[in-house]
Amino acid sequence: MKILMRADTHVSFALPAEEPKAKCTTSQILAALSVSMGSMVVGFASAYTSPALVSMLDRNQTSFDMNMDQASWVGGIMPLAGLVGGMMGGPFIEYIGRKNTILGTAIPFIVSWLLIACAANVWMVLAGRALSGFCVGIASLSLPVYLGETVQPEVRGTLGLLPTAFGNIGILLCFITGKYLDWSSLAFLGGALPIPFLILMFLIPETPRWYVSRNREDQARKALQWLRGQKADVEPELKGIMKTHNEAERSASRNAIRELLQRNNLKPLLISLGLMFFQQLSGINAVIFYTVTIFKDAGSTIDENLCTIIVGIVNFGAVFVATILIDRLGRKVLLYISDVAMIITLMTLGTFFYLKNNGTDISNVGWLPLASFVVFVIGFSLGFGPIPWLMMGEILPGKIRGSAASVATAFNWLCTFIVTKTFVNLVETIGQHGAFWMFGSICCVGMFFIIFYVPETQGKSLEDIERKMMGRVRRMSSVANMKPLSFNM
Fold this sequence. Notes:
Oligomer: single chain
Strand order of the largest sheet: 1-2
Largest sheet: 2 strands, antiparallel
Number of helices: 23
């Protein structure tokens, strides 16, 4: 540090010396890969109904009857339970830690899949899907928080997208194996996926910021040393974490809801809620949950199961492109590209179904649904898929991150439930064309939201992002000091 003195004012101040950029360590990569395995389980669970419902509704392949309303609940109950899991996740990551919360979902995930695989009636399937959804809600909140608190700013975008990439691997795996396995065998495969995730989670530490919030300085130092490398000097970073934590403690309120509603905290929370809203109201989960059904209704000239696999492959590949671009182009540019691609393809799909339902000969463009789905999924995977979750771990102030992340995650799963549960009814009411046009119109509104409200967070530390979001009048708050939302009834 260089100390400069001005003789005329007798005021001293410090300017930070420029430091070389730290390199990403293999420990950080291992941590990102470990939690991302949990995201693969989430992806598999999200995609399960698309291939499974076909055989589940076939009386020759099940020992119980299932009607269409019950089938819609098999798809819809998971995001509804995810809403509950999202609300519970905030207190969990605060009181038992980020790592333990993530780790704690592994065994229930296995149990949920076994309930489905061995189901003798519809209620066992619904119970398994509900338990799975509860774990999905907790995981979707805790994974980005863990990565946001452990990964260096220079690679936070790249490594922060790994959970999305692995989630898409889970979706692709479900689509491919679902072509050859019935609903029960597919569920047994789902039960095997959490096992490597469970093993890897034991290898990584808790986040240093959570240890600091629990006054465990020595454990925080060890965790930080593990993450940054044995030769790294972690004392300056640790002191910075402790300093911001102490500052936040002095200004912390005991009323978590009042904290959330404060003007400075409400702005980043509303931005996060907006991103979650436009992510889900793009109709992505209607596409993922009912891919096979949509292609069958479209009368595509390509086999619907093959179309589903192609969509899954594209979904998988697009996220790796986003991983390469996000720390080069930034978050907002990818959101622009994503939104434009979704608007064009949703309007195209709506037009295709409109012409088909009105008796127009569309046999010459039987490839159009697949082409539109491919471009839609590419667009979504580049921006609106991963970035709302990544930015949730970046823009929410540390002092309210646990409670705010709970609200944002629960809201995301509420939107997911509404879209997936009502999609079949929506199609019956306004047709496939009306549903896709509605989703496309919502994406148009989302473009204005990105332009006017979403900040750029590329390459900035969590403390820098918070200072910019909060303004100069507010003291910097700790990323570890989370006040969980209270749900006293």
